[in-house]
Specification:
five-stranded antiparallel β-sheet; globular; ribonuclease T2; 6 helices; alpha+beta; endonuclease; binds 2-acetamido-2-deoxy-beta-D-glucopyranose; hydrolase
């Protein structure tokens, strides 16, 4: 989601890369042979050994976006409850697995031949009128790619845990996550899958990898173990979230809030705290050892590349962690 990532400087986009890369994989001319990653000692992303794409196998080492963010949502409804799109009880939902550059900036829609997002946001590769337009996908939603690959179990799991933010359909949201973000990993390029590549194989691989990271990050339970449960009567402090999650994850995550700014609320009148007041996102940051598909993340602090740790209000008791709407949670 572009809208939740305002804290990252738009100036950090790298427009010079797009002319070539927006229309093909990240490394044009890459052979589809000899990417047997188990024969290669895994190289840690963002380390000096990963910095030169011509010196490593880009299918086995993350050479493009090596700062990996496993992101989750806390929403209270979906807007499509009547169609069975509901939220999982006692769990935050999966947002995505994003490949930021090692310096904390990021790019998006890196391969327009794999553009399956019906609602591109932004609508150009750079987010400016000068960028390459990202055409809306008009085909069947990306979830339909999984049946022919024999992955209906994955699709069912995704419908349960990878639930879109309010008023988006899940399948549209997955297409957004794949095309905006997954195409910017060096290791999901189609050449990495060899000469017998099946159409959309890397889509399923990305979804599986993303699910694997998510499954190791039980945010709801980590909070609950510290007595932090959603409530529509109590308010919370930032430390109620930052403390337990940092302890459990092993590094400081980013905590995101939406909703009113604290000093625009009655409780915050006269305050200079302009942080938002409704907790709704957690971003866990990693470097990864070898390709992200190996699922070996090394937890790193969310400000490792200089970004902020939160946009939430920091006044004690300023935050809401709302209960889900009756009927939205199953
Ligand atoms: C961040 O890294 C990317 C990829 O190496 C580069 O294109 C971009 O210019 C860098 N941004 C800044 C602000 O240094
Ligand atoms: C793949 O590896 C084999 C065995 O080392 C080698 O003979 C061949 O040239 C390689 N092909 C490419 C495209 O790298
Ligand atoms: C992108 O969106 C902006 C704002 O809605 C609009 O003015 C512009 O024409 C769009 N550009 C493309 C390439 O669709
Ligand atoms: C809220 O705080 C910000 C920054 O401290 C300040 O610029 C803004 O004017 C304040 N807003 C209100 C409504 O007091
Ligand atoms: C709790 O409050 C949120 C935000 O106002 C609302 O969306 C939700 O429906 C409420 N949940 C319950 C169980 O009242």
């Amino acid at each position: 989601m572009a809208s939740t990532r305002r804290h990252l400087a738009a100036a950090a986009f790298a427009p010079l890369l797009f002319a070539q890369q927006a229309v093909a994989g990240l490394y044009p001319g890459l052979s589809n042979l000899n990417h047997t990653c188990s024969l290669v000692d895994p190289i840690l992303s963002c380390s000096s050994g990963a910095s030169d794409p011509s010196a490593v196998d880009t299918c086995c080492t993350e050479t493009f976006g090596g700062l990996v963010l496993a992101t989750q949502f806390w929403n209270t409804y979906t807007g499509f409850e009547s169609q069975g799109q509901v939220l999982p009880k006692d769990a935050w939902t999966l947002h995505g697995l994003w490949p930021d550059f090692c310096n904390g900036s990021y790019t998006q829609y890196c391969d327009l031949t794999r553009q399956y997002d019906p609602l591109p946001a932004p609508n150009t590769t750079t987010g400016t009128p000068e960028g390459t337009p990202v055409p809306a996908w008009r085909g069947p939603d990306i979830g339909t790619f999984l049946g022919p690959l024999g992955k209906l179990d994955l699709l069912a799991w995704m419908n349960k845990y990878w639930v879109a933010q309010p008023d988006w359909l899940n399948g549209d949201f997955w297409g957004h996550e794949f095309s905006k973000h997954a195409t910017c990993y060096s290791t999901f390029d189609v050449e990495c899958y060899g000469p017998q590549y099946h159409e959309h194989e890397e889509v399923a691989d990305f979804f599986e990898t993303t699910a694997a990271f998510y499954r190791r990050l039980p945010t709801w339970s980590w909070l609950e173990a510290s007595g932090v449960r959603p409530s529509n009567v109590t308010t919370f402090s930032l430390s109620d979230f930052a403390g337990p999650l940092t302890q459990a994850f092993g590094a400081v995550p980013y905590i995101g809030c939406s909703g009113s700014k604290f000093n625009a609320t009655d409780a915050g009148k006269g305050s200079t705290d302009a942080g938002n007041t409704v907790v709704n996102e957690i971003w866990y940051y990693y470097h990864v050892n070898g390709h992200v598909q190996r699922q070996e993340g090394i937890a790193v602090d969310a400000d490792i590349a200089g970004g902020r740790l939160t946009n939430c209000a920091q006044t004690p008791g300023a935050l809401h962690y709302y209960e889900r709407t009756a009927g939205s949670e199953v």
